[in-house]
Amino acid sequence: MKKFFKIFLIVVFAGLFVATFYYLFNKGKSQPVVFTTEKAFMSSIVKKTVATGSVVPRNEIEIKPQLSGIISELYVEAGQQIKYGDLIAKIKVIPNMSNLNNAENRLNRAKIALDNAQKDYNRNKPLYEQKVISQQDYQRFSIALDNAKEELSAASDNLQIVRDGVSSKSGKTSNTLVRSTIAGTILDVPVEVGNSVIEANNFNAGTTIAFVADMNKMVFEGKVDESEVGKLKLGMDLILTLGAIEDQKIPATLEYISPKGVDEQGAIQFEIKAAIVNKNDIFIRAGYSANADIVLEKKDSILVISESLLQFDEQKKPFVEVEIGKQEYEKRKVKLGISDGLFVEVLEGVTADDNIKSKPQETGKPEAGKGKGGRRGKP
User: Fold this and answer.
1) Is residue 200 included in any domain, yes or no?
2) 233 assigned to some structural domain
């Protein structure tokens, strides 16, 4: 009985050893490499580049005062529509004490001169009437009196301008009233009532009271890399995607390419501008960030393949492997055309009936939808 159990155990262990060896042998045996195939197909390819930038008004101006002073009233706010000549603000003049003193002195001297001219005139008028003096002498006193009156009027106006910023003669054309020089939209009013403002002159740019722009005429301003600028031409079509309105595609036309590049973080960038064609009357705010797709080249109904199917020989010349039998392939040199980075046009080398070698599979089973016959359709 003991001998039977010994023989039984030996047989069991031997069976386990053989089974384990067989399992490890099959597991270590490499699976056959199976390649899938794809076909070339008819499609369209659009080669484009992307420019980043923003949307700005074509005509945007800064409204600045014609004299220095303090804002006493503001008549507009951001977003308001205005017309040419509409009031923007009113300025209260703070006179310079030296100028004010000189103006007052001038007025006093003009009064003295007028009083003296009036006395000379009154004294000589009876003499002229009595024919004691000639008309020429009398005329000299009359002209002196008129000049003295004119000087008094000018001195009085000058004092009023220095003190108040306006004279009685100017009326509604006063420099203290700041008006818009164009029709459009108020983009920003960077000052408040009580702020000091400075007039523009040769030494100072002046204080901006308001930014005004025509929002019906917008342009895209962006930059492209030097590697792409040589492919651009005036009149090219652009498609804008605005950061704030992602679901809208807005057409534009390239109208400016900078003749000079600018170094930005080691890369040379060229400025471009494009006129926006807002056919759908979409409200576009100034300063929206935007990306512009610029169509460099487009071909319709051409034979294309995926760029992942391409291989390159030692001379960097492209080729593909075409199936000639079951898992048997031959090299075919191909001549390529336009590419968009994902798909490339095939001018020579393969046809739409050829099965082109694609990625290998380790499982021995074709991937779903990637067996013989490959993918069809447009990219």
Assistant:
1) yes
2) yes
CATH code, domain with 284: 2.40.30.170
C-beta of residue 39 within 8 angstroms of C-beta of residue 373: yes
Instruction: Determine the pLDDT at residue 379.
Output: 40
Q: How many distinct structural domains can be found in the chain?
A: 4
Segment 242-259, tens digit of pLDDT: 888 877 888 999 999 999
Gap between the terminal Cα atoms of the chain: 77
Q: Are residues 158 and 176 in the same domain?
A: no
Structural domain for 87, as ranges: 60-93+171-213
CA 290 to chain centroid: 7
- Tokens for 347, please give them: 């001018």
Tell me the per-residue pLDDT of 319-376, one tens digit each, with 9 for 90 and over: 988 888 887 888 889 999 888 888 999 998 888 888 888 866 544 444 433 444 443 3
Burial per residue of 23-36, b for 16 or more beta-carbon CB atoms within 10 angstroms, e otherwise:
eeeeeeeeeeeeeb
Nearest C-alpha neighbor of 220 from the set 294, 295, 279, 281: 294
**Of 116, 27, 74, 41, which is closest to residue 378 (Cα–Cα)?**
41
Q: Residue 50 pLDDT more than 60?
A: yes
